[in-house]
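Margin note: ligand = glutamine.
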Amino acid sequence: MTTAVAIAQRVQSGESSAVAELEVSLEVIRSRNEELNVFLHVDEDGARAMAKQVDHVVASGSNAGPLAGVPIAIKDNLCQTGVPTTCSSRILEGWRPPYNATVIERLVAAGAVPVGKTNLDEFAMGSSTENSAYGPTRNPLDPSRVPGGSSGGSAAAVAAGMTSIALGSDTGGSIRQPAALCGLVGVKPTYGLVSRYGLIAFASSLDQIGPLTKTVTDAALVLEVIAGHDPMDSTSLPEPAPSLMAHLNDGVAGKRVGLVRELIEGADEEVVASVHRAVDVLRDGGATIVELSIPELHLGLSAYYLIAPAEASSNLARYDGVRYGLRVDADDVAAMNEATRTMGFGAEVKRRIMLGTYALSAGYFDAYYGQALKVRTRMIEAFRSAYLEADLLIGATTPGVAFTFGSKTNDPMAMYLNDVFTIPTNLAGDPAVSVPFGTGEAGLPIGVQLLGPGRSEAMLLAAARVLEVGDGRS
Ligand code: GLN
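Resulting structure:
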């Protein structure tokens, strides 16, 4: 398995070059992208120029950075200067951002080479990548199944070996759920740990950017590079970024791990079995296991489907046919706005805008949006109490393995339920990691989820590392 750590080491030592590593990545993309529909845009020329720059730095005897020459796939809701950025929506067709997201700046400064933009559910609304205006992405492990979503393209890029690492965004599970369905490690960082400057907003009080990787070590490496205060994002935490790589082998000895009943309830038998086996591995590693119940977690889905659409309806008001991408001409400005939005947005995005606008409207605000915010506060308090009894929590990432195309598209509730275990941490603003552990139906991967209080990424990644070794994938 090629990891980012291995590529960077080869490039920095001169054993390989950034240009050669990029060509390997482009070759896999060329051979599988048509079948899997992973990349919406491959920036061959831009990537070659960046790779040459890395090789130049290495040749001059300098350190090219911890990600020297590592090709990386970027979810297409992150802005990269001059590179088409669509959010998988018709409404942004043809738009090229005039600036880089902070995460792109940091990755490039660390030597990484962004190769292209990956498919997602339109505006990151979905759990299967079937909501993309540019067609669904297929799961490389079984092309008859979805890769999860909304960061399905980023997950598929790594699972198919097109790149060793990718960036995704997670508002309600969109990094962890596709990571679970594609057999990868996915991290949803603490709210504010990673700058969202240049991330196209879906639900601003929930969105976070994070890595999808094959190994826990690569996840720690990428997160360490992209985390840290950014004056361009007012929600960015002021503290320095945590040191993650240095704590990877800390283990779990002495840690109290809370097995949360509500985070496995309703999951397939094989998923529950995986979580129980993961618990055994952590116990063998010296952790104490406590069984917990956090009944408030049941409220997560309903609160999320008011808060997230409410914020989305406001964030997406800017797509009016004037400033970005698509414009459908009409007799006057109002008619042009309407025609553009009617043509530019897909069904799920329209559904969310309507839900959100309704929840925010005068007369309904208190009953829906206001109520959801109160539920959110209860959830934050419930997590806080749980973290008095346990250092970290464990549960499933998803109720089942990757599902087949079309199996949930006619029933939005069935699709929404796929995020029942991931949504609560977004509402609380806390971090969570999905790590592959065991397999289920048809040999498909299962993801186990580790959750912790704010800024506990180092502890979560150390625990994930114990599971990675325990699952025989060290
Ligand atoms: N599937 C959830 C939704 O559709 C979460 C999406 C996300 O995390 N971006 O809202």
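The CA atoms of residues 128 and 406 lie 9 Å apart.
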